[in-house]
């Protein structure tokens, strides 16, 4: 695999993680607008207008879109520390399973600080949240997807209720950015 592709995949993964954090924090702020394809209880908290709204995020690549949402600030910080911003912003057709700030808060602070200080481990975790293909709601019922990290993610569920690896709930799914799809999740995924 060439270095540029690897960097893009890593950046995409980190941006995805950042986005999921932001979106989770926004869950109680606003309601999704009619006619969009987003789903999940957390979508109601996304602002109705501005850079952090669904319309605003659709205009920006993943990492930039995440940076416009305060609820994804921990993910954005992680993506920046791992050096994945450009990778995520330049990748095309990716899917990011983005943990919310609350998802990161489930990790003991000492453990999170240790991971944030270890670029290799951080990159490994963040790229596990990124899939190098579009994954839409219709693909989530019984899915299995290879991540940029090299491991596999599984998804299951129906209606508007889906899980990733049987541990993380998708709180707001099918959020579109200029270069990919984001599914905001309530738990940070750990590669095996």
Task: Explain what this protein looks like in three dimensions.
The protein is α+β, with helices and mostly antiparallel strands and about 190 residues long. It has one domain (about 5-185): FAS1 domain (Roll). Helices cover about 40% and strands about 20% of the residues. It has a 7-stranded mixed β-sheet with strand order 2-1-7-6-5-4-3. The chain is globular and about 40 Å long.
Could you outline the blueprint of secondary structure elements for this entry?
Elements lengths: L2 H24 L27 H5 L3 H6 L5 H10 L2 H6 L3 E6 L1 H5 L3 H9 L1 H9 L2 E2 L10 E5 L5 E7 L2 E4 L3 E10 L2 E6 L7
Parallel strand pairs: 1-7
Antiparallel strand pairs: 1-2, 3-4, 4-5, 5-6, 6-7
What labels would you give this structure?
7-stranded mixed sheet, 21% strand, alpha+beta, 8 helices, FAS1 domain, 7 strands, 192 residues
């Amino acid at each position: 695999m060439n270095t540029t592709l690897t960097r893009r995949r890593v950046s995409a993964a980190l941006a995805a993680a950042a986005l999921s954090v932001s979106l989770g924090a926004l869950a109680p702020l606003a309601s999704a607008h009619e006619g969009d394809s987003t789903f999940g209880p957390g979508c109601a908290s996304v602002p109705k207008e501005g850079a952090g709204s669904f319309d605003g995020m659709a205009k920006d690549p993943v990492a930039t879109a995440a940076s416009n949402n305060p609820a994804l600030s921990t993910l954005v910080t992680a993506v920046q520390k791992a050096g994945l911003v450009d990778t995520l912003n330049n990748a095309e057709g990716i899917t990011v399973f983005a943990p919310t700030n609350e998802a990161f808060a489930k990790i003991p602070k000492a453990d999170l600080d240790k991971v944030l200080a270890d670029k290799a481990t951080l990159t490994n975790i963040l790229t596990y949240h990124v899939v190098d293909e579009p994954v839409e709601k219709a693909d989530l019922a019984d899915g299995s997807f290879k991540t940029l990290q090299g491991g596999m993610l599984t998804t299951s569920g129906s209606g508007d209720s889906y899980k990733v690896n049987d541990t993380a709930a998708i709180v707001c799914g099918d959020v579109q950015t200029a270069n990919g799809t984001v599914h905001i999740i309530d738990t940070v995924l750990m590669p095996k």
